[in-house]
Amino acid sequence: MGVTQRAWEAYVRKEVNEEFMRKLTPEMVKPFYQIMYWNRLRCDEMPAGVDYAAFDLAVNSGVNRAVKFLQEIVGVPVDGVVGPRTLAAIANYEPRRLIIALCDARLHFLQGLSTFGTYGKGWTRRVTDVRSNATAMA
Question: Which pTM value belongs to this model?
């Protein structure tokens, strides 16, 4: 289901074992993704496509990083918090341009990781797919 044990334990606030993790179902993880990523980013308040690109970035690289990338691109103070100022700046930014800039920033970040040589092909494909799907939504 794409959920790390550490992230799940933070969500349920207790330790779980590998066997439990293997038994996760889509119905079980949907609220996890909603609460831990979608809601924290306030994706319901973002334009279509931007919401998806930001959400996917947050799932893979953390909510804080996703917010800071968005804030840098739209030109608001970078504090890692999606508040009214950040949402207003996102709303005033052309969605396709923002999606492309966000995916570019994401790929640049990934290319700087020491594990890019091992996982880079898959990461690049994922970012390319997100860019394509997100711009189609915008």
Answer: 0.94
